[in-house]
Q: What sequence folds into this?
């Protein structure tokens, strides 16, 4: 049975930090570390999580439903829902179109099985998206992959959420969503916006309002995507808070925690940073 999250209200969550638990980011290591991660979330009063399953891209076609059920159960049995799962980057020049299609369909199946509200993906990444021919090719690929993934999510509680990323202009994203069906959503990343604020924040939020299926919340000073806790950069949280008041999309605090698996204090440090960000965000936004 899928772990269906039937709540209609918004939920706050954090992104699981696999690096504090896994030396190789392989499936065995992640499954071994997940119970500890889930236990800490429960103890810290955090009720939802985003699972970055794209770390398992090399294994996505070989891991069966049993693996994903076991991973989900680590969290579900502690009362922690899976708000979203973070999938892959859409490929620009795939070695095998059929293999990439199979992977995306499998990501959709996994997201559905785990009861996630959103499957987050990144659009095509290319160094020359300012070149017309390259941009047109990228747009075609993004549209192709998005339709395949959205079709695989039909009759599912999960919505595809394409993330705004700094290498894509807002003009590109407007064009992309103009050519996609309504069920394809956006993951609005506040840190990514701040690195490339080509539109006023209020205008960007209003333009994509009907598309927003997931929020990634972090902060920075505009120089790079530092994944700082909300309030530690220059992002306009008052504007965001006013706009998102009635949004039911999951809100994921997404940090880049520096603790790595080879640090004996990694688990402790990662947990503390996550909890500190959780508490400071609640204070900042009054949630």
A:
């Amino acid at each position: 049975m899928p772990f269906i999250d039937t709540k209609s209200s918004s939920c706050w969550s954090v992104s699981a930090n696999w690096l504090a638990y896994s030396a190789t980011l392989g499936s065995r290591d992640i499954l071994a570390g997940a119970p500890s991660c889930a236990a800490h979330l429960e103890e810290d009063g955090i009720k939802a999580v985003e699972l970055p399953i794209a770390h398992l891209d090399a294994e996505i076609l070989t891991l069966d439903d049993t693996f994903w059920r076991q991973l989900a159960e680590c969290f579900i049995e502690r009362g922690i829902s899976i708000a979203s799962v973070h999938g892959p980057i859409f490929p620009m020049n795939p070695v095998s179109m059929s293999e990439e299609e199979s992977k995306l369909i499998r990501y959709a199946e996994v997201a559905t099985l785990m009861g996630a509200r959103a499957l987050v993906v990144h659009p095509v990444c290319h160094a020359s998206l300012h070149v017309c021919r390259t941009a047109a090719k990228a747009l075609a690929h993004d549209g192709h992959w998005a339709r395949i993934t959205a079709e695989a999510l039909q009759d599912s509680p999960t919505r595809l959420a394409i993330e705004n990323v700094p290498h894509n202009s807002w003009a590109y994203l407007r064009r992309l969503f103009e050519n996609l069906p309504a069920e394809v959503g956006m993951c609005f990343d506040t840190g990514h916006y701040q690195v490339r604020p080509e539109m006023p924040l209020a205008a960007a939020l209003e333009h994509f309002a009907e598309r927003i299926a997931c929020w990634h919340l972090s902060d920075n000073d505009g120089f790079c995507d530092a994944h700082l806790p909300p309030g530690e950069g220059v992002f306009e949280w008052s504007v965001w808070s006013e706009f998102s008041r009635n949004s039911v999309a999951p809100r994921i605090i997404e940090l880049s925690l520096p603790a790595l698996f080879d640090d004996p204090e990694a688990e402790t440090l990662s947990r503390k940073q996550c909890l500190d960000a959780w508490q400071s965000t609640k204070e900042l936004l009054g949630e």
About this structure: Residues 1-8 have pLDDT under 50 and may be disordered. The domain at 12-285 is CATH 3.20.20.150 (TIM Barrel). The two ends are 33 Å apart (CA to CA). The first strand starts at residue 12 and ends at 15.
